[in-house]
Write a structure and sequence with these properties.
The protein has 259 residues and is an alpha/beta fold. The chain is built from ten helices and seven strands. The protein is globular.
């Protein structure tokens, strides 16, 4: 299980409308503002709960690096503070990863879940990938070694920084440690235990979370269906917002009579 979360950051969030609660969880490196184009279309009959996750937008960073489990616990605590017992959930990318853990860890907390280009499947490493990781770690060892001249240590650090992913290079400190913890966890073992209906929406041109990840999730989740958006990438819900909202409305409406 994850380490202590430290102090729980307060939430910056939009909370509007009335009806069945619908929680939106955004992806890594962005904020809840990216949901703005679809909120009006989904508001009827729903209380929209749209937070900036800790470390993004206007919500402060956690005081220690978090894993996806701490993010799921934070979301559950947020619902407690808002007096919400059960909600529907829309998660994009890393927000979908958090949704998976939340639904698995807190059964009954999420009634129905939409995963859009969801993260959570750790890609299998190739031999080239393993070599890159080893070289990166060697550079970091040089950077930290007190036995190596300072100029060489700095050069190794700069080289390592350039070899990290764009997401890794864009953050530092607590959030860099958080990213490492999150991306190194594979959630596929949780998927067969999800006891709720799940709608998967994927762009067939998604290069961040490939369509094969969506197909795998559809096979592993007991009650899941996959809808593919032709010609769309990782932000399919923004590229085809009208279609996205119509499909989500039908999916959530079909469960209105569920306990």
């Amino acid at each position: 299980m994850a380490a202590s979360t430290g102090e729980i950051p307060p939430a910056a969030l939009e909370d509007r409308g009335s009806g069945r609660p619908l929680l939106f969880l955004h992806g890594w490196g962005v904020s809840s503002a990216l949901f703005a184009p679809i909120l009006d279309a989904l508001q009827e009959g729903h209380r929209l709960i749209v937070p900036d996750l800790p470390g993004f937008g206007a919500t402060p960073e956690p005081d220690v690096p978090w894993s996806v489990h701490e993010y799921a616990a934070w979301c559950s605590a947020l619902l407690d503070r808002l007096g919400v017992e059960t909600c529907d959930l829309i998660g994009h990318s890393n927000g979908g990863r958090i949704g998976i853990v939340m639904a698995a860890t807190y059964p009954g907390r999420v009634r129905r879940m939409v995963l859009a280009g969801s993260a959570g499947i750790r890609p299998r490493r190739t031999l080239r990938g393993v070599a890159r990781v080893r070289f990166y770690k060697a550079l970091r060892m040089v950077e930290r070694s007190v036995l190596i001249p300072a100029a060489l240590r700095r050069a190794a650090g700069r080289n390592a920084d350039q070899r990290g992913s764009a997401d890794y290079r864009a953050v530092s400190g607590v959030m860099r440690g958080t990213l490492v913890r999150i991306v190194n966890e594979d959630l596929r073992t949780l998927l067969p235990h999800l006891d709720l209906p799940v709608l998967l929406i994927w762009g067939d041109q998604d290069t961040e979370t490939p369509l094969d990840d969506g197909r795998l999730m559809e096979r592993l989740i007991p009650d899941a269906g996959l809808v593919m958006f032709e010609g769309a990438g990782h932000y399919a819900y923004l590229e085809q917002p009208g279609r996205f909202c119509r499909i989500v409305e039908v999916f959530l409406r079909d469960g209105e009579g569920a306990a």
